[in-house]
From TrEMBL:
Listed name of the protein: unspecific monooxygenase
Primary localisation category: endoplasmic reticulum
Bilayer topology annotation: Peripheral membrane protein
Residues annotated as binding heme: C454
Endpoints of the signal sequence: none
Catalyzed reactions: an organic molecule + reduced [NADPH--hemoprotein reductase] + O2 = an alcohol + oxidized [NADPH--hemoprotein reductase] + H2O + H(+)
Organism: Pieris macdunnoughi
Enzyme class: oxidoreductase
One Gene Ontology cellular component annotation held by this UniProt entry: endoplasmic reticulum membrane
């Protein structure tokens, strides 16, 4: 009897402690949910414990959807206050204010917001995207020459080779009378280019399943709820991950790519082998910095591995996402597809039928089609910056406090009918060179804007184009009935991806 009394007493005490603990947490969250109200900022009502991200956590909404929803709900306001769990985040609606943050007052918003400190379990976290301040400035200056026109021309034969392999794979699919899963096809195409240029390896990914594609795809679209949640936390409260020494990315993925870079570097050093690719440029940078004895800038092997991952980060979404959605819109709009094909034929005739670096540069209308694709389907639906010092909003009493995360819902801006008339309609004529030159810089910004604008955007254009040039000169692209129309965004993906994939039926062109 005495034992039962002790047990009941213990259970009662644990219940009381647990209840009091829960109550304190609840009260603390509710107080935090008054943060924006106390600052005079309007926004949607948060709910315990996920704030305005209940749908995201439950995998009912894509990661950036709350910001897009808030844009249209509070469109007349320059900014909107939201909460991720109990963390206040500010969403910017006004394009002029966006320009202020990304360009004019860039020095107050230097960081993307994620911790730049790699640890033993996350050695690949210290790449350019995650760095800020003097570290970012020094590394960006070193990496920028790797994306010049001259360097891109040296990479072009490798891109063209992969595009040829992609066409051969398409031929096999056509001969079998099958439709092409374009989501998977262009993801493999992008990964093959990244493997070749970024990591210096040939995967034969169109002929077999590869670990490179498996781990690369998992890096961008985590299948696990745990890693999806961890990635979300890394955006909003990276300090928690740092304190608990938790990883943003599955350690198995990190280890695979770390070992891959190590093996590539060792092979090249041991065999005195060099190649015109991105990883060689990183190896050369490491050697030159070591030889110079530059104490202010250190570039170690871990930095080589981390920035090889940067190449994947910058190159995959831009080309894979853009290519698959571009194919979707061309299949839905055959008159636009015909116009693109005619331009390709006309331009290639000037270059003896060869797809050269100069030839793809001359495809003005195709560039317009890519720009319109990026308007409707930007790879990342929102940009994000963390305020690194108190910043007073212009023409306002609001002060954004140091450490506050700021989001810019670029897809909502891209789909605003007051900016782009009839935004659901796919219309490349919006992006004629003349119209694009007159456009507000923050009305269309799939690559960001200001000093942190994506370094690899030009290569992304090239990769997106070359694969489709090969296809369009041989096939007509038709939409397969398995493709969900209109497109539904895949909620589990951090980037823009189609639910159910995009399926394309190939129709062989005569006299091709």
């Amino acid at each position: 009897m005495a034992v039962l009394q002790i047990a009941f007493s213990l259970i009662h005490e644990l219940f009381v402690v647990g209840f009091v603990g829960f109550l304190l947490i609840y009260v603390w969250f509710k107080y935090r949910y008054t943060y924006w109200t106390r600052k005079g900022v309007t926004g949607p009502k948060p709910s315990f414990p996920f704030g305005n991200f209940n749908g995201v956590i439950r995998r009912k909404k894509q990661f950036f959807q709350p910001f897009c929803d808030a844009y249209f709900e509070y469109k007349k306001l320059p900014y909107v206050g939201l909460y991720s769990f109990n963390v206040p985040v500010l969403s910017i609606n006004d394009p002029d204010l966006v320009k202020q943050i990304l360009v004019k007052d860039f020095d107050s918003f230097l960081s993307h917001g994620m911790s730049p400190k790699p640890n033993d379990g996350d050695p690949l976290g210290g790449h350019l995207f995650n760095l800020y301040g003097s570290q970012w400035k020094a590394l960006r200056a070193k990496l920028s020459p790797m994306f010049t026109t001259g360097k891109l021309k040296t990479f072009f034969p490798l891109i063209n080779k992969v595009a040829g392999e992609a066409l051969e794979y398409s031929d096999v699919i056509y001969e079998k009378g099958l439709s092409l899963n374009f989501s998977e096809f262009y993801a493999k195409y992008a990964m093959e280019i990244i493997g070749s240029i970024g990591f210096g390896i040939e995967n034969d990914g169109f002929k077999k399943e590869t670990e490179f594609f498996k781990f690369g795809h998992e890096y961008f679209q985590p299948s696990s709820v745990y890693w999806t949640l961890t990635r979300a936390i890394s955006y909003f409260t990276p300090g928690i991950l740092e304190k608990l020494q938790l990883n943003r990315t599955n350690p198995e993925i990190n280890q695979f790519f770390y070992d891959l870079v190590r093996d590539t570097v060792n092979y090249r050093e041991n065999n005195k082998y060099s190649r015109n690719d991105f990883i060689q440029a990183l190896i050369d940078l490491q050697k030159s910095e070591k030889a110079s004895g530059n104490k202010g800038f250190k570039f170690t092997f871990t930095d080589v591995a981390a920035n090889a991952m940067l190449y994947m980060f910058a190159g995959y979404d831009t080309s894979a996402t853009t290519g698959m959605f571009m194919a979707y819109e061309l299949a839905r709009n055959p008159e636009i597809q015909t116009k693109v094909r005619e331009e390709i034929k006309c331009v290639l005739a000037k270059y003896n039928g060869e797809i050269t670096f100069e030839a793809q540069n001359d495809l003005t209308y195709m560039n317009m089609v890519i720009d319109e694709t990026l308007r409707k389907y930007p790879p990342l639906r929102a940009l994000f910056r963390r305020c690194n010092k108190d910043f007073k909003m212009p023409d306002s009493d609001l002060v954004i406090e140091n450490g506050t995360l700021v989001f810019i819902p670029i897809q909502a801006i891209h789909m605003d009918p007051d900016i782009f008339e009839d935004p659901e309609r796919f219309n490349p004529e919006r992006f004629t060179p003349e119209r694009k030159a007159k456009m507000h810089p923050c009305h269309w910004m799939p690559f960001g804007e200001g000093p942190r604008k994506c370094l690899g955007l030009r290569q992304g254009y090239i990769q997106s184009k070359v694969g489709l040039i090969k296809l369009l000169t041989n096939y007509e692209l038709c939409l397969d009935k398995r493709t969900i129309t209109p497109i539904e965004v895949k909620v589990a993906s951090m980037s823009t991806a189609a639910e159910g994939d995009i399926w394309i039926k190939l129709r062989k062109l005569e006299n091709c």
